[in-house]
Amino acid sequence: MLRSAVHLPTATRVAVKRISPFDHQMFCVRTLREIRLLRHFHHENIISILDIIRPASLETFTEVHLIQELMETDMHRVIRTQNLSNDHYQYFVYQILRGLKALHSAGVLHRDLKPSNLLLNANCDLKICDFGLARSADQPEPDGKAFLTEYVATRWYRAPEIMLTFKEYTKAIDLWSVGCIFAEMLSGRPLFPGRDYHHQLSLILEVLGTPSLDDFYAISSVRSRDYIRSLPFCKRKNFATLFPNADPLAIDLLERLLEFSPRKRITVEEALAHPYLEPYHDPTDEPNAEPLDPSFFDADSAKEPLSREELKRLIYLEITR
């Protein structure tokens, strides 16, 4: 739950994010993860924590209150209520990628990039938020199925490799999400609004076409390959036809973001250097982030899941340190 308030120490209006995580172990893990990550990153395009309200005691600790910068709206609302120009598209996509570069440089996958997780103010400044699903890019889980357990409401922006094989995921998943968001800006509606797993894949293949043999055999799951083989052949659609009013350079960047194969998909550094973003691209003003402490994701990688009480204690210690 989010509400606005006045932060008395600074006399400024702020957002107060109230979280009640202690009913479920997974919510506790997400909350601990988000607090640690937001404290680590200090970047213009990543939402920051200004303060955290300290609980009176561990015993009476029932809610987390994060004090954050106040942003007027989010990309989801803007896409549905505003007529955006090419200048808007460039500036928004540039800022998403600039923030994402910081995350990826620290070895962090956001994993939940979508329009509602991109906050905006009246100056069109953009900040990435909601790090509850973020994970280390350098420590794949031994049980790949666990990677998908938290994926519930973000199917429309989910990279195909996440659905097709559980055990391999890279920073490329976030670039796919950026492509989906960019396409939604251009058309005003989601590009792949799948009803379920199968419909989602079908929509992707209807646009990108049936995978090439190289891409097909790069899918490690035999079951996934069998499923794709069972589908009718699809011819790739022309992006210039799908987005007739888009700048040709925007189309080129979009095609590179929405590559079916994660190995062929553009990286965040390559995307920032793409000619479409030339008006904003400045390598000297696109900083990397400090590397993460290896213990950041200990709660995720523990062989035995931590209990709610153990996680509550860790959250309490994180807030009061």
From TrEMBL:
Keywords from the named record: ATP-binding, Kinase, Nucleotide-binding, Nucleus, Serine/threonine-protein kinase, Transferase
Residue ranges, annotated region (Disordered): 278-303
Sequence ranges assigned to domain Protein kinase in this UniProt record: 1-277
SMART domains: S_TKc
Subcellular localization, as worded in the UniProt entry: Nucleus
Pfam families hit by this protein: Pkinase
Main location: nucleus
EC number(s) from the headed UniProt entry: 2.7.11.24
Enzyme class: transferase
Record-linked CDD domains: STKc_ERK1_2_like (cd07849)
Cofactor dependence: Mg(2+)
InterPro entries: Kinase-like_dom_sf (IPR011009), MAP_kinase_CS (IPR003527), MAPK (IPR050117), MAPK_HOG-like (IPR008352), Prot_kinase_dom (IPR000719), Ser/Thr_kinase_AS (IPR008271)
One annotated GO molecular function: ATP binding
GO cellular component: nucleus
Protein name: mitogen-activated protein kinase
Species per Swiss-Prot/TrEMBL record: Malassezia obtusa
